[in-house]
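Researcher: I'd like a candidate sequence for this fold, 561 residues long. If you have to choose between options at a position, lean toward the conservative one.
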């Protein structure tokens, strides 16, 4: 029967639909399993097929003993009988509604009917109208709900060396060839982040962003070498020398393999340390006062050492700013200079998101300071109740500068999911009566771009989240089971986290929609609109309700029986 709601605001989206239809991709085709196709019209919407196995103790949607599937079971009361008990098995589709009528007049029983659009939740006698005394003759409405078990994970906080990438300075441009007046640094190779393996090196700064192999949809940031030109990922960022996380200078823009510095950036001073290690004897340390670039490609370091350079040969190992060893051409103890045939300085690069207090990770869903759970009630219109399960603090996702590949979703999220570890392998997510979804709150995601700097790269029209899903605008498809919400994308839009709370809450619900196989729609002010300003958590469209309510199995990309 119809949904138990007031006529002025029915939950049923099909009461006024006079054109019957059928959901595509709901049959047993390919890898999709949703059972027989489902109709959607004003009288039979969302009613799963009831004449199906398993039949113990009875088929779905029928009373025990209904052998001819007509919805009627006869009970024989003998003297002394006071109670008869029958099994009833509900179907699995949210929004299916049932009432049971018990009468002593078999002729009247055969006349009972319910047409959704005409009778609503009431049982009618085709001869006499609405059944009288339905409080005693007809049961309350039993509505099928599903639980959506949304497990939430959070990335660790940003601090120390995190959220930085590593590179090596091999050259610079400065007034008079001096590092103290450098305005451009040449980077010869880089590493995604300080915790990544060394084999993750790239030949230029653009390679730090091309983690997803889709250069058209996910291009690198427009930089100084692009056409048209841009300011690059590291615009408004900063760099530090060596493993010292203390900022040295500000970055104005970046090219494919260089950084353009702001004028107040000296590439020398107490923050650039050095080590001079002779084959035998004590290692000399100190800091670099300046570096002079010479004709022919050599570099002369003016040092402030803690011990004299007297007696040190060219076979000593010389390193500055924790870089690679540089071959010594000459050592002059009288003026504390060392000349090398190359330059190799370790540099740590950070984009504009430099401070840990720019974000609220690890996020506490129990406290929910940004009220990100505000939009989950929208799914109640599809008879879906969202139940949030929190990961333990020990299951926090280790920080990485970026979510790099599809495998990262599995390694960093699914392996830390308590639901996945304990229940899914045996049940496919349905054994305990729930559907499964995962949401991870992270700082960055490279799906759009590794960084969206506020001055030139922000994408204000799109949601910043990403869900690996199989979705379609006209079919009920598998959907997905993992969504990633990158706080940094929203921070770039507003410059703080307090102003982005609603946008993030909307995007969380939007990504969950993708988990259910929903795709983008152009209708304004609905939660699956791809334009953030047109995305709302106030209502579902009729088709969106139907697609969710017609699902038989939990969403996701992992296989099901």
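Model: Candidate sequence:
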């Amino acid at each position: 029967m119809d949904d138990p709601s007031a006529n002025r605001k029915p939950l049923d989206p099909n009461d006024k639909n006079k054109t019957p239809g059928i959901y595509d991709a709901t049959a047993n085709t390919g890898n999709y399993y949703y059972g027989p196709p489902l109709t959607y019209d004003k009288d039979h919407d969302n009613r799963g097929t009831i004449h199906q196995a398993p039949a113990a103790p009875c088929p779905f949607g029928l009373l025990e003993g209904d052998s001819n599937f007509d919805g009627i079971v006869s009970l024989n009361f003998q003297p002394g009988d006071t109670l008869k008990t029958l099994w009833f098995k509900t179907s699995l589709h949210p929004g299916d509604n049932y009432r049971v009528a018990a009468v002593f007049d078999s002729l009247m029983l055969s006349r009972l009917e319910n047409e959704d659009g005409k009778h609503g939740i009431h049982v009618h006698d085709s001869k006499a109208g609405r059944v009288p005394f339905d409080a005693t003759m007809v049961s309350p409405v039993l509505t099928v709900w599903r639980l959506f078990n949304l497990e939430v994970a959070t990335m660790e906080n940003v601090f120390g060396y995190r959220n930085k990438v590593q590179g090596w300075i091999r050259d610079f441009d400065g007034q008079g060839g001096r590092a103290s007046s450098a305005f451009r640094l040449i980077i010869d190779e880089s590493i995604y982040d300080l915790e990544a393996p060394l084999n993750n090196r790239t030949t230029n700064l653009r390679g730090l962003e091309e983690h997803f192999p889709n250069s058209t949809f996910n291009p690198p940031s427009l930089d100084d070498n692009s056409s048209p030109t841009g300011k690059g990922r590291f615009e408004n960022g900063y760099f530090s020398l060596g493993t010292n996380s203390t900022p040295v200078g500000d970055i104005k823009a970046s090219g494919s393999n260089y950084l353009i510095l702001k004028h107040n950036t000296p590439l020398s001073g107490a923050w650039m340390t050095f080590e001079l290690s002779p084959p035998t004897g004590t290692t000399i340390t100190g800091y670099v006062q300046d570096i002079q670039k010479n004709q022919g490609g050599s570099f002369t370091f003016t040092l402030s050492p803690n011990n004299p350079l007297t007696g040190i040969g060219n076979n000593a190992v010389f390193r500055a700013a924790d870089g690679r060893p540089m071959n010594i051409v000459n050592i002059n103890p009288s003026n504390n200079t060392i000349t090398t045939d190359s330059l190799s300085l370790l540099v740590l690069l950070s984009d504009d998101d430099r401070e840990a207090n720019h974000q609220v990770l690890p996020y506490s869903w129990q406290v929910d300071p940004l009220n990100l759970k505000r939009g989950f009630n929208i799914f109640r219109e599809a008879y879906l109740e969202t139940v949030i399960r929190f990961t333990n603090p020990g299951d926090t996702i280790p920080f990485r500068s970026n979510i790099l590949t599809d495998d990262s979703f599995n390694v960093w999220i699914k392996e830390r999911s308590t639901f996945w570890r304990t229940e899914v392998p045996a049940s496919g997510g349905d054994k305990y009566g729930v559907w499964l979804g995962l949401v991870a709150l992270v700082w960055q995601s490279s799906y759009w771009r590794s960084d969206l700097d506020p001055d030139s790269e922000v994408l204000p029209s799109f949601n910043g989240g990403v869900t690996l899903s199989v979705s379609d605008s006209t079919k009920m498809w598998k959907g997905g089971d993992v969504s990633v919400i990158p706080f940094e994308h929203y921070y770039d839009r507003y410059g703080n986290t307090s102003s982005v709370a609603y946008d993030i809450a909307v995007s969380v619900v939007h990504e969950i929609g993708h988990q259910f196989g929903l795709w983008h729609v152009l209708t304004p002010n609905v939660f699956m609109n791809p334009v953030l300003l047109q995305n709302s958590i106030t209502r579902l469209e009729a088709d969106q309700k139907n697609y969710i309510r017609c699902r038989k199995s939990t969403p996701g990309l992992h296989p099901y029986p």
